Amino acid sequence: MTVDTGDLSVLSPQTVPIGEGPPTREQLLVHYPPKFTWQQLRTFVNSGDLGMLKRDRTLQRRYDEWAKGVKAEYGSMVNYLLTYRLQWGKPDARSRLKSKLDPPSTFSISLRNQSSLGETPSLPTIPQGAPAHFTADISPDLISIIQNDWPYSVPPNIEHTLVWTVAGIMPPNIPEPVRPRLYQDGLWGFTGYTKDSPPPSPSLLPQCLPALAEWGVTEDKLIRSPKGTEEEEAAVREAGKEIQTFVERRWSVREWETAWFVNPPRLQSVPGLAHIHVFARYKDEAEQAAWDIERA
Question: Fewer CB atoms inside 10 A, N or C side of the chain?
Fold first, then answer.
């Protein structure tokens, strides 16, 4: 199954009502067209301040209005996620946005037609002896992989996936010198890129900042840590190693290019639940063939 971006020639505000609640892919294309390119997104991720990753401002207002209703109905966003939206260990069948990795039998149901208001919010229990933090081989029963119902402003060929997890994401053995940095900046990484298209250097950020003008983002307002020593940089990479391996396994590096990240506490919209963001771009046949040649 491919990620259908719709026939733009027949999509218009007249043929696609703006609607309410989580948007459809057609609504995103027509009413909330992407503000950023794939190269800009990768540059933002690699430049040290994940706060540069934005949702369309009009879509954000739609989300804020929807969230008021959800909180009134469920008591909190965490309760909504735990009692309804997250399906631990199961495919995502409740999103209006589909993924190329969805199993063929996955079907979509309305996010508002069914409710679990009578249930007590709870998390799956981590089995005795299992790691309390996220690992690459975490049990599927302890994660819920879903499409972001309210994606950031990404190109139509980019999937914005969330990996929710019962386990904590930050490993327990973070060296003290880099701990403040990780809790300020978060974690991020890249997979599936070729030698010709490595993660963009943070030095390219000034070229991308004009795309953030409507949010008032300027370089002097960024919150990011300076580059550390070789030992500190190695410790940061080690902290994200399990996530990196997990992403490489789920999104085949031959078929997918990704940029993943974990927001620091200051940027988390749902601080009560740990989750990983993954921007994933499916490669065309020529890119996959080039990948094979590069590694032959």
Answer: C
